[in-house]
Amino acid sequence: MAGNSGAARLTLSGRFNHYSSTYLGGVARFYARLHRRLYDRFGGTRFTRLQGKPVFRLTVVGRKSGEPRPVMLMLVRDGDDLLVCGSNGGHPGLPNWWKNLAAAGRGEVRVGKQTWPVSVRQVEDPAEYEKHWRTLVAGYPDFETYQALSPRKFPIAVLSRAAE
Fold first, then answer.
1. Cα separation of 115 and 108, whole Å?
2. How confident is the prediction for the chain on average, in pLDDT?
């Protein structure tokens, strides 16, 4: 499977997160919402890490509701761009934020105190996918565990700063 070449190093935290997203969805969603609310409450100056890794807030308009839908994601940079992976902790289904992102084609990110609009490009080219996959796993190794435990190939998108 692309994005999972060779034997994956299965991390304990990755296994826990996979179990939580797959079998304890309500608990995982509660924790994610709490984390986002605390991040927002402190203006992006606190709760900027999850399991020691940096995070950011992505806000996308809901494809059904038309309302802003914020979500906290792992912060993985590729130059000036941000990379996002629709891993959903390895859950068999795509995360709703990914479906909204694909439908909207744009969003807004908040990294610390800074907020800016982004355009979205889904990665289709296999060579580019592998390059970005390696960058994602280097930034957040649990992605590799999620992929090893999931039946689907995770989508990857590049978020680029858009004109305001």
1. 7
2. 87
